TrEMBL record:
Gene3D superfamilies, sorted: alpha/beta hydrolase
Localisation per UniProt entry: Cytoplasm
Organism: Mucilaginibacter pallidiroseus
UniProt cross-references to HAMAP family, sorted A to Z: MetX_acyltransf
Binding-site positions, substrate: R201, D319
Taxonomic classification: Bacteria, Pseudomonadati, Bacteroidota, Sphingobacteriia, Sphingobacteriales
GO cellular component: cytoplasm
Family: Belongs to the AB hydrolase superfamily. MetX family.
Record-annotated AB hydrolase-1 domain positions: 40-322
Protein's UniProt name: Homoserine O-acetyltransferase
Pathways per UniProt: Amino-acid biosynthesis; L-methionine biosynthesis via de novo pathway; O-acetyl-L-homoserine from L-homoserine: step 1/1
């Protein structure tokens, strides 16, 4: 289905106390609600993705995939602050009549989850059969499952964490430093900070993949090469690719939202917060993930009451959650056949 937009008529108060007026949420839906209205699969997307989940998670979501529109009513909403239709730094500031740019209020993953709640209410969805997200999407899904445990029946968390780590924050800050070196970022124009964004994406890629990934995919075949390396070209290409479809302001704010992620904030700590989750939960970690190391998913598994755990040994590092769709399908299929009581799903048994 084509992109739709919901406009919230009330005032949306952020965790900081700032208020957004006329919040708009862009979203896609696929399939139809069944008579019992219990076939909802809600996807929370990652940092620079959009609400068209059938496009960016092919092999896992699609006409002939595990999550398909024939069986499920699939919903994916563009997150608060993103570049694809939901209220963001490039939206019009009602006070000035111009885009917010850096006057946009800072928000958290908790705020992003609360925006999802508004849309679910608008769509008349009382029960979500499966809430799923990876990376930043997993952080949102965690927050939502704590805010409204009764609404979420099953929860799937992939390559994510309960609290963003100093390591992850350092990566994000390094990217923001790169953006800030581009003077156009402060020029209040839609393409401001583009060169900085290109550099930021290059930094981010190093955390999404691994030494081994680059060693094989970007290895030079000619030992006489002394410049213009494949790895250099790859970094430039991927950086420009993001510049062509995103903007530095959304990237800046979304990275700060990721840094803010801490389910234990105001809830007595992470252990207590995770104990509030009542959904049957599948936690999936990637052994080669350097950005969200597997011990972070093991922590989630240990502290969420009804949880199962599986590992993926992926060549692609953190990006494996987007690429290893065949393995994700096998793990997810096994999960829905399992009576979850702190059970570990062994990948070797289902691969």
């Amino acid at each position: 289905m084509s992109l739709q937009t919901f406009t919230y008529s009330g005032d949306f108060e952020l965790e900081s106390g700032a208020v957004l007026h006329g919040l708009e949420i862009a979203y896609n839906t696929y399939g139809s609600l069944n008579k019992s209205r219990d076939n909802v699969v809600w996807v929370c997307h990652a940092l620079t993705a959009n609400s068209d989940v059938l496009d960016w998670w092919k092999g896992f979501f699609g006409e002939n995939d595990h999550f398909n529109p024939d069986e499920h009513f699939i919903v994916c909403a563009n997150v608060l602050g993103s570049a694809y239709g939901t209220t963001s730094p490039l939206s019009q500031n009602p006070v000035t009549g111009s885009p917010y740019y850096l006057a946009f209020p800072e928000f958290t993953t908790r705020d992003q989850a609360k925006a999802h709640v508004l849309l679910a209410n608008e769509l008349g969805i009382d029960v979500i059969d499966t809430l799923i997200g990876g990376s930043l999407g997993g952080q949102q899904a965690l927050e939502w499952s704590i805010i409204e445990p009764a609404r979420i029946k099953n929860l799937i968390l992939i390559a994510t964490n309960a609290k963003h780590s100093p390591w992850g924050i350092a990566f994000n800050e390094s990217q923001r430093l790169a953006i800030a070196t581009d003077r156009t970022f402060y020029a209040n124009r839609p393409d401001g900070g583009s060169k900085g964004l290109k550099a930021a994406r290059s930094i981010a890629l190093l955390s999404y993949r691994t030494y081994e990934t680059y060693g094989i995919t970007q290895q030079e075949e000619d030992d006489t090469v002394t410049d213009s390396f494949k790895a250099s070209g790859y970094q430039n290409y991927q950086g420009q690719k993001l510049v062509n479809r995103f903007n530095a302001y959304s990237y800046w704010y979304l990275s700060k939202a990721m840094d803010s992620h801490n389910v234990g904030r105001g809830r007595g700590g992470g252990d207590k917060a995770l104990s509030m989750i009542t959904a049957r939960t599948l936690v999936i970690g990637i052994t080669s993930d350097v950005l969200f190391p597997i011990e972070e998913q093991q922590y989630l598994f240990r502290h969420i009451p009804k949880a199962a755990f599986a590992e993926i040994d992926s060549f692609y590092g953190h990006d494996g959650f987007l690429i290893e769709t065949e393995i994700l399908t096998k793990i997810t299929t096994s999960f829905f056949k399992t009576d979850v009581k702190g059970k570990i799903i062994e990948l070797q048994k289902i691969a």
